Amino acid sequence: MAFSSFGDWLGLLATTALAQQLAGGNYSKANFAIAGVFIVRLLPAVLLGPIAGVFADRFDRRRLMILCDILRFFLYLSIPLVGNYFWLYTATVLVEAVTLFWSPAKEASVPNLIPKNKLESANQVTLLASYGTAPIAAIVFSLLALVAGPLSKAFSERYASTANIALYIDALSFLYTAWVVFGIKGLPKGPAVGAKGENIGKSLLGGFSFVRKSQVINGLVIGMLGAFFAAGAVIGLARTFVGDLKAGDAAYGVLFGSVFTGLALGISLGPKIFSQFSRRRIFGASLTISSIFLILLSTITNLVLALIVTIILGAFAGLSWVTGFTMLGLEVEDEMRGRVFAFVQSLIRISLVLVLAIAPVVAAAIGRHSFQYSSYTVTYNGAAFTLLLAGVIGTAVGVISYHRMKDRPSISLWSDIRNAFRGELGGITGATHAGIFISFEGGEGSGKSTQTKLLGEYLESIGETVVLTREPGGSPIGVQLRQILLANETGVISPRAEALMYAADRAHHVFAVIRPALDRGEIVITDRYLDSSIAYQGAGRVLQPSEVARISRWATESLTPTLTFIMDIPAEIGLGRLESQDRLESEPLAFHERVRREFLNLANIDPERYAVIDATQSVDAIHAQIKERVNHLPLLKINKKN
Fold first, then answer.
1. 610-614 and 563-568 as β-strands: parallel, antiparallel, unpaired?
2. E strand map for 493-626
3. pLDDT, tens digit, 9 for 90 and up, residues 545-560
4. Which domain holds residue 297?
């Protein structure tokens, strides 16, 4: 993957530089020629992208990748040998068409080689291999610019220019990649190899249908299309922008590499730095920030400052990309993976290449302009104007994406930033695991225990492995702590000591029961979890709920439920259902009303995770609503089969 991507980026640099070289120094002609390279790269994605995904599902993925790499070797080798616009564009179209078949085969193969709970880390490695090689390609291209002069004196300039030497290296990289893939004997074939009764057309329609019906994919597409908008504008205009700054091929390579250095930093470090934030929230916010830096870039006339801003711009674009890619990858099973990845990547490729193609055309149409202010003359050319326009459009797309993906509409981003500095957002994103974690919360007498048991029986009836547990008392140590915490004989406990005892029970509960079950891919259903501490010890005992939450998140290593049901019932009705009362149940009515309000407040803050159920309904009606909500969880076996 790394060598193949290196070849892709070196080839892109070489073909755009060759297009400008063939323009003979004409500013408008050079921009239109570069745009032509990107336009012909666009056409295959429009026509072949989804079909290529069907091939990745129905044929031997390893053989498909080897064949594609060999074809790309010969095509790139032929470009400098022929040396004219017609073959440059023709070979570029063919290379892009072949790449469209290689990419979904590669993307669909990777998840089969790693555990599901390592998917986010694997996505980072995948994207770094794909995009992190661009700076290496840029450095190589810049170095080639330094040695091309002496070589052109020894050989014909037609065969020894910077672009042509880069194309030779590019071709060899694909030949090497074919040899590497040939050695991976255990690469799984497409799941539909040898399938009967379903033609390619039906498979293609099945992929479209999946994308159309999946709410997650629909929600991500707009943002993922915009993730490379800012970076794409910089790439498309980099050559002319550098020329406007009075620099040459070496500076072009450095600026090009700066974009992808930023992308690599965002992909590798972003998820860790912003781990406390909701993925949906950081997705749109990073898009917006990236576009704002693009606007700033358009006003800069100093190459060093431009490089710094470009790296920051790329970093936020990379963060949004890896975040969206991870959310997408978690939802797609192997049977559809080739088609879905091909469809989404085709849309992304079309969006990216369209920006790359249009930006130089707009810059050429605007041309060069000089503005006189007293004794000062300022030159502001088409490339800078176009970057400014792209930044404004990208900012608008980012803001729209942020509001569409915003999972906690009542909480501002600045509030999240403040809480992150205090370490109070750790539970929002949480750690990854292979199973499903469901918690039931609510006041006394709300029917949590009954519903946990009914849900467990239902899930077992559809073939799931279920672990039923509770807090406190879900482990042998927890049983002892439960006796201390709830027995009336215990008497008064300091509110802070009580909160710490619940956190201690929860820490061991996660360590001994919950985490092992989730790592085995099972479903864990717990009667109470960390939200009960926030409500009872935080609001009920009039401590600071955020401080109680922080203690529990530390104790659980930020393990957060996949779904939390809030069984809502007026405190007076719930208490009236009890035949006897333990130490907490004996608290005054005002205590229990504060607890109820805090549960509802938690649900309002994070509606993506919580489902509020009216617990005054009949047991059967409540169970039906819970089943309906749980059936939408994508990791259930019943949904995997569908």
1. parallel
2. 523-527, 563-568, 610-614
3. 778 888 888 888 878 8
4. 2-406
